[in-house]
Amino acid sequence: MLQRYWFGDVDEQGCRGAGTDPAALAERAATLRTGMEAYIPIEWEVARDCGVVRDRGEYINLLRAVCTRLAREEIAVAYQARDVELLQMVRMLDELDNVINLLSERAAEWHQVTNPSFSRKYRRLPPDDIEHLPCREARGGLSDVAGEINRLTGVRGRLMREVSARADEVMPNVSALIGGLVAARLLSRAGGLSALARMPGSTIQVLGSERALFSHLRGGTPPPKHGIIFQHRRVHNA
User: Fold this and answer.
1) Using alpha carbons only, what angle is made at residue 10 by residues 7 and 16, rounded to the nearest 5 degrees?
2) Largest Cα–Cα distance of the chain, in whole Å?
3) How far is it, in rounded angstroms, from Cα 101 to Cα 49?
């Protein structure tokens, strides 16, 4: 019975090598579709008998070169997917949110030290105004930090618009239903477009509420009704 391996073909009559070019061998290996039930493992000496290698070290080096080339090709194909860049954009947006919130909190606490009356105003202000208040009244290093917060806030706004526009291109149907930004966050939480497409509606409904779900399973707290889709105004106002 003929057995095809990455280095050549083996049957009852012997072995026929496929050469020593890593590119050609990688292309050959990518076409092999032998099931595990029909796979017959062999020793490296068979490749030597085929004339592909002379010793075990040469066999290992050639196999490493073939595997490395295959991995690079698979990575290149994966990175060509339309949703890969969108995933990174959403994750960068989340990181920007965390950085802005942390810097705003620290700037407000710093400003409170020099202006104790600020603490009462701080509790009454909406979050968007908190980001800008230290910049108007700060001096020195605090002013620099407040200016950086404002700059990052502008970057976040531009990135949000870019994420929404890219989501309209990558997943137009979902974006038309719930908006580009919410659709992109669902995509990011699911891990990709294909993973999101395979999810049942019940899973998508609670996507993003994993902590509440696990708390419900462990401690009997009320189960979550929705996750990221709660950010959509129609769901939020329902």
Assistant:
1) 60
2) 92
3) 65
